[in-house]
Amino acid sequence: MALAQPEPGGLSPASGRRPQPQRTPPLRGALATTACMETLQVGYLHAVAAAAGCSLSQPFPDNGIDWHLSHSSAGHTVDDEVTIKVQLKCTYQIPPHPPGPAFSFTLDNDHLVKLARTPVSVHKILVVMLVPRTQDEWLRASHDRLDLRHCCYWTNLAGQAVTGRHRTTVRIPTSRIFDDRALCEIMTRVGAGGRP
Questions:
Q1: Number of domains composing the chain
Q2: A single Pfam family, by name (predicted)?
Q3: CATH number for the domain including 53?
Q4: Of 64, 108, 131, 168, whose CB count within 10 A is highest?
């Protein structure tokens, strides 16, 4: 007669799964949540740029634009290297997987005017990151991956009109997930003389 050996860590009799160990919340630093959100979105941008083969530079002072991304390719027709300007925003007030074709995001009018200017010699995009409300939910690491939650979306606001007195609500398409493929496609369009 053979006896089954218990699984390492034991199994929960009701579910047949291993019980999850109780995790003690880590002692996080006292940096303001908004400052941490800014750092998180910069990490997302760097990961996307690295996977797309782009270089980054940060203007100083930023004057309303956070980053410049450049993409070199012999396939570009306007120049061998093209650049776009990126403005980053981050919010926990919009849930993940926003329903519908777009979600609303509000910008100060002065900021919108800068992003909406047209024509331009260097195109600009707005990248909005949606994050969980608590920092404990932002990252999950395992041996084969680092999951960063939730997602960044991008849009080109060139020509967008100011409609509010001090702030204007714009629509961010949910079909425009900002990842390495999206960034390569943006750079390909700009490299052919088009818009992002």
A1: 1
A2: DUF4365
A3: 3.40.1350
A4: 131
